């Protein structure tokens, strides 16, 4: 599932390509035909992201709410757009000429038109987002500091922190030497503040580079003389998807286990209880 940095990047990309111009909208797959008909010819007035939820604003019809889920993808291209291939839920085209750019949405969990009030209801059920201006982690800390739930599970709870997924969860805990099974209430305030600040910095970097890199400069392949990571995830990481491989720091074996229906990765030697 795409993590929060991807959704914030999508919001910025949609603004750059379509904002201020009437868009052409169609649902080649047919599952969003009524919604596409309402969007067709409307001007995109804004874009917003909160956690893993993307909102595209159209003043006359409200907000297009998208949640990619496990399988959803958005692909961009320069016009004129070719005939759609595969199950395209929604195609948007626009720009100065009406065909400068296009975007194809495939396989989302959610693709719906909602009102401003309904959009606010989505925000209200989500936690602090490290990438949203004004979110400072205080509300998240109040929930974390009172919880007996493991910090690893809390970091993935979108009602506590919105946008953090499996990669950022594993990596930020490693970077701060925190055992993933520690209860949230056992974290100190200083530890939480460091984790929050690190998530803000890492996820902003993810938006800029459109990928997740979490290793510090002294642990890059060039600095350590090791081969670069080869994985669909793409970025340089400490523990994510590195089960049974040696830790970059201590040389111990990276472990994996199931936690809340997701694979957890950690180094027991670097992340002691």
Q: How would you sum up this structure, described in words?
A:
There is one protein chain. This protein has a 4-stranded antiparallel beta sheet with strand order 1-6-7-5. The chain folds into 2 domains: 4-124, MutM-like, N-terminal (N-terminal domain of MutM-like DNA repair proteins), CATH 3.20.190; 138-266, Orthogonal Bundle (Helicase, Ruva Protein, domain 3). The protein is built from 8 helices and 10 strands. The chain has helices spanning 4-18, 33-39, 116-124, 138-144, 151-156, 166-175, 189-209, 221-224, and strands at 24-26, 44-50, 53-58, 62-67, 73-78, 88-94, 101-106, 110-114, 255-259, 262-266. It starts with a helix and ends in a 7-residue tail after the last strand. The mean pLDDT is 95. Helix content is 29%, strand content 21%. By secondary structure, it is of the alpha+beta class.
Quick rundown:
The chain has 273 residues and is an alpha+beta fold. Helix content is 29%, strand content 21%.
Helix share, percent: 25-40%
Structural class: alpha+beta
Low-confidence spans: pLDDT under 50, at least 5 residues?
Answer: none
- Counted up, domains total 2
Broad shape: globular
CATH architecture of the largest domain: Orthogonal Bundle
% residues in beta strands = 15-25%
Give me the side-by-side strand order of the main sheet: 1-6-7-5
| Rg, Cα atoms, Å | 20 Å
Number of helices: 8
Order of helices and strands: HEHEEEEEEEHHHHHHEE
């Amino acid at each position: 599932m795409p993590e929060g940095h991807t959704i914030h990047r999508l919001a910025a990309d949609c603004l750059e390509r379509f904002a201020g111009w009437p868009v052409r909208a169609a649902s080649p797959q047919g599952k969003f035909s009524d919604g596409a008909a309402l969007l067709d010819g409307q001007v995109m007035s804004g874009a917003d992201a909160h956690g893993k939820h993307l909102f595209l604003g159209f003043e006359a019809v409200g907000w297009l709410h998208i949640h990619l889920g496990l399988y959803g993808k958005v692909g961009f291209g320069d016009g004129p757009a070719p005939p759609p291939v595969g199950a395209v839920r929604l195609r948007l085209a626009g720009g100065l000429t009406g065909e400068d750019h296009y975007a194809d949405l495939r396989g989302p969990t959610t693709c719906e038109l909602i009102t401003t009030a309904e959009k606010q209801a989505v925000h209200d059920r989500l936690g602090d987002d490290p990438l949203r201006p004004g979110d400072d982690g205080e509300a998240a800390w109040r929930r974390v500091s009172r919880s007996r739930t493991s910090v690893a599970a809390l970091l993935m709870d979108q009602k506590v922190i919105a946008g953090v997924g499996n990669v950022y969860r594993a990596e930020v805990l490693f970077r701060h030497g925190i055992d993933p099974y520690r209860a949230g209430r056992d974290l100190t305030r200083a530890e939480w503040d460091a984790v929050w600040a690190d998530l803000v910095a890492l996820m902003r970097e993810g938006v800029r580079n459109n990928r997740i890199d979490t290793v510090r400069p002294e642990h890059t392949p060039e600095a350590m003389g090791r081969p670069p990571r080869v994985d669909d995830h793409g970025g340089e990481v400490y523990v994510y998807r590195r089960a049974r491989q040696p830790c970059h720091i201590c040389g111990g074996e990276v472990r994996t286990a199931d936690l809340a229906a997701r694979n957890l990765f950690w180094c027991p030697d670097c992340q002691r209880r």
